[in-house]
Design brief:
alpha/beta, 8-stranded mixed sheet, single chain, 8 helices
Length: 257
Amino acid sequence: MGYKVDYHIHTYYSDGTMKPTDVVRRFSEMEYDIIAITDHDGVGGVAEAQIAGEALRIQVVPGIEFGTSYMFKGEDVELHLLGYHIDTENERLTERLKDIREKRHDRNMRLLALLNEKGYELTYDELVVNPKQNYVGKPNFARALKARGYDIPNMWDLFSQVHKERIDVLEAMELVKGAGGISVLAHPMQIKKIGETDSEEFWTNLEVLIKDLKKAGLKGIECFHPSANEQQSHKLAMLAGKYHLHITEGSDFHSEE
């Protein structure tokens, strides 16, 4: 009998809405055996989740999700990288995360200024779900704007006008490795700029990309994710098998809404 697992979960330490304890309780009640807390660019929620996991008898894997940059055929492609079984107190990782947070805060302030300039009044305090949160991402902006009653048809296009500096994928993989962890490519079907999703060009380029990342130390692919249908998940699993990579599954959970 296999384990019931979810290796891609966010708490309110990044852009989720629930505290780690409540997240663990929810998955425990659903009879999961193993979950991973993979907040964006931070590990603040891991310790709390692991304490809850011990009490509720569910294994909590310490993880993280990086939004990274990868130069592929002259294009700056955004890849999301999941890191598992990391030492959350690793000094190099901690220092780099601090730097990433500072750059993200700068981007958020510029985005806030742009929204206000276009007549969408919003304050930084409205973006913060809880006092411990040190990450604010686009979903935080989207929820705050919705709470204000704003309906912005081209919201994501508007967000893309403010550039965010991303960490290089190879550096992110080195950070994960240095912290004793393994790197997994998140939700491949959401990768842009490598061809129209699910086209022959897309799959050809995805394989080249995976082969390159494998040489640099990639250990797995998130083959089962809400962005992939059954056929796509099967094709991703075949790719993982071809390159001897772990196959992982994650819901990308953010909230119960």
